[in-house]
Design brief:
462 residues, alpha/beta, 7-stranded mixed β-sheet, 4-stranded antiparallel β-sheet, 13 helices, binds pyridoxal-5'-phosphate
Length: 462
Amino acid sequence: MPSAWATSGTDLHLDPAGPRVRAGLENALRSAVQTGRLRPGARLPSSRVLALDLGIARNTVANAYGQLVAEGWLTARQGSGTRVADRATAISPQPAPPARARRGVPYDLRPGSPDLAAFPRADWIAAARRALNAAPAEALGYSDSRGRPELRRSLADYLARTRGVRVTADQLVVCSGFAQGFGLLCRVLRARGATTLAIEEYCLPGHREAAAAHGLGLRILPVDNDGALTTELGDADAVLLTPAHQFPLGVTLAAHRRTAAVDWAVRRGGLIIEDDYDGEFRYDRQPVGAMQALAPEHVAYAGTASKTLAPGLRLGWLALPGHLHADVIAAKALTDPQASMLDQITLAQFIASGAYDRHVRRSRLAYRRRRDRLAAALERDAPRARISGIAAGLHAIVELPAGHEEHDVVTHARRHGLAVEGLHAYAAGPEPRHAPALVAGYATPPEHAFTATLERLCTVLA
Ligand SMILES: Cc1ncc(COP(=O)(O)O)c(C=O)c1O
């Protein structure tokens, strides 16, 4: 169980069951001093008292104190105990982490991440070894901005087989995740005179920001149970859609809405950007194939390894209509000539050897079970909360019981050591159109923490 130690209004959250208790305690104390929560001169509890409070060995506390005294954060004097050093606050605070960087919280249900502890390290290392042994020396030099040919070949086969994408290796561009691919598309669209991007009313705020940063105005598309209202694309120049699994609302884009989008694109010469971020994960039936197959000359299909493997790999891919190809490659060459060749050839080998399919199958089973466990736990312990959206992906919408405010629930959860996000954080406008809900990223916690994380969630909601 995690413990919280409170003194002078300061909470130090620690997980004494974690493998690095002493390091955790040191970090918690450093950060409390840095942020001013522990003021210069503040007296710390004796090592015996803190050890008792936290349920850890006294030596661990004494060693942590000793280390921080040596670093100058604390002082220890006979008779006056251990105190925060006077000069400690002169140390400038650390820069805030970028918005999407995750800091350690004991229980984490924020969406956006697969189970990082389940990354297939051994298979990845084996693929890297095989790939590097087989790679010609020229692979280590500057190369094609579209990405390594072996990766584009592997991806073209994989995407055709699993997502129905109609693409050849030549039409693919490997990029640093969806984020870069989307940025390149915005840049090229704007340079060609586009002014308006239609975007789903609920989406990752970073996508709205990226489009705006590239000078595109936004047209907000409402989303209902059939997905985005593609009947309202009007005079937009392009649209960003998550057809397989709307992020974050979790519905699929109905066939009639797909057709409406394609008709619009053909009629107006508009571009559909298909963000297929978690298309591999569908639990109740076969995944719906990519929309790109309906109109490859009007859809820029974007995929990523961020959900199937890990966001830290920064590997994504674009399958592009012919008319965009040269401009996107030129924009890519200008800003980021090529992704790391080692990662590219490793992923190529990982896919070609079948390890990627195996990993996706394993993950699908694991996440499906987690989703079922989430639903069962809510039904049993917080029956007034309700899951909505299709059985797919790595997150679920948990609609809050009547009378619960998102902000209050998120804050209350924080106090229980649980990080969750409210749906409203993803809305385009200040007036939420959807009922209060949480976006629960059930893939995020490591397996050993999943049960405890569900218990926290139910306690908070009950
Ligand atoms: C809707 C959506 N699209 C795409 C991505 C993947 O982004 P990237 O490939 O840049 O990691 C995410 C990741 O959280 C996402 O939520």
